Amino acid sequence: MFGDLGRNLYAGARLCFMLPVGRGEFRASLDQAFALLVLGSGVFLLIEFAAAEDDWFPSPDRVGFYALAVLAALVGCFAATRLLGAAAMLSTVVVMLLAGVFWLVPVFGPLFALAPERALAAGSAGAAGVGIAIVLWFLAIAIRAIQMVTGGGIVRPAVAASILVVFTALPKLLVATPGAWLAVPAKLPPGWTQENLYYGQFGMVGQAIDWLAAGRPGVPDVYFVGFAADAEEPVFVNEMRGVTRLFDQRFDTKNRSVVMLNSRATVRLAPLANLHNLGRILSEVGKRMDPEEDVLFLYLSAPAVRDVAMQPSFAPLAFVPISAAHVLGMLDEAKIKWRVIYIASCDADGFADRLRGPTTLVVATAGSGSRGRGCKGDGAFTPFGRTFFGQALQETYSIPDAFARAEALLNEGDEGVLTALPSPVIHVGEDIGGRLDAVAAYLRQLDAAAAARRR
After folding, report:
1. pLDDT confidence of 120, banded at 50, 70, 90?
2. Which one, 197, 335, 341, 371, has the greatest CB density within 10 A?
């Protein structure tokens, strides 16, 4: 079986790259069709698993679309062979196509990995060009395979192959919503109007802040405020959940955290991320904090910062851009003295620079010119953000130490991120170090007490 599998892959490579190959060089059987399907699906899942980053498995939508595409392609093979009166050759066509299309992965995989990320942003000319190239190459493989099976002619194999390509594309065209595969604005839930959304914010913010606990005398409490500003990238919801969970578990913010999200999936669950809601929530958080003891961790997640301001988005609403001056003004008005501000965006160094202060620590995950999350519309953590939250902060309670560890891990790793791209940015105020040390010491005491209870 494995020998036949190797022969089929070799013949498939010759089919894919338009080299001389004959139908007799393929070993067609249902066993081989199954083996090639398993091999190809396995390679796909490995790639998706690697791209899933902090998630334990690829997105169910992506895996589901792949499964539907495979099913539709098999139906298309059946339709094409029936059209040609060669249904008995179905297994041969399936084996030839699976063996040939398999080699498109090593062709286009390095392109997606090595090409400038902005060049392949969703909706860009580069992404469209690559998509067209894949479809045309698939069509050429299908025409050649069907022509070899039928023994000649070009018109009927071309028609049959076109039918096959259409079937394969049907899940993308009919099942996937536009937002799942194009960078289009999010829409409101069915039956909702802009008025529902607007007036609902008063209640949503009220619910978010009602359960926030007050700071405890003598305890350096940490408060977490998350702000995910872009509705065009649904992955921000999972990203924010992951960071919030980290702080709830490791920084004792379980009843001292609140998030704002621009996502149609959460409009009934969390306030929108806009200037007004951010100001109101920071004001209420400030009322609960001890200004001398407690520390705020403000997590700002947005697309690339333009003109030293971030632009929240949630179509069809139009939101006011949020500048660094807005953020500083809201923090000062709320009398929040000790501040850690993490800006998860690209081109954010100018924004970060304007937030500097003696009682403030600012981290910008990617500086000017970076190809991080938000720059290409893929919604993924930057490598630094992934390492900072996923590794460094799992090992230390010190924000400056975590920053240094994340940089070191990336410099030592395979990605070579910090040598290839502008480094992330950190500004540590001259007065905040002692306050962060007090927080870290308290959290270590909690760990020691928990360990003693387990013994």
Report:
1. low
2. 341
From its phi and psi, is residue 365 left (phi > 0), alpha (psi between -120 and 50) or beta?
alpha
C-alpha dihedral sign at 393, 396, 401, 406? negative
Mean pLDDT over the full length of the chain: 78
Alpha-carbon span 325 to 225, nearest angstrom: 18
Token digits of residue 92: 């041969």
Q: What's the sign of the alpha-carbon dihedral 115, 116, 121, 123?
A: negative
DSSP classification of residue 398: -
DSSP secondary structure of 38-85: HHHHHHHHHHHHHHTTTSSS--HHHHHHHHHHHHHHHHHHHHHHHHTT
Give the separation between CA 82 and CA 145, rounded to whole angstroms.
15
3-state secondary structure of 438: helix
Domains of the chain listed by start with CATH number: 2-181 (no CATH), 194-454 (3.40.50.1460)
First to last CA, the chain: 55
Largest Cα–Cα separation, the chain: 86
**pTM of the complete model:** 0.59
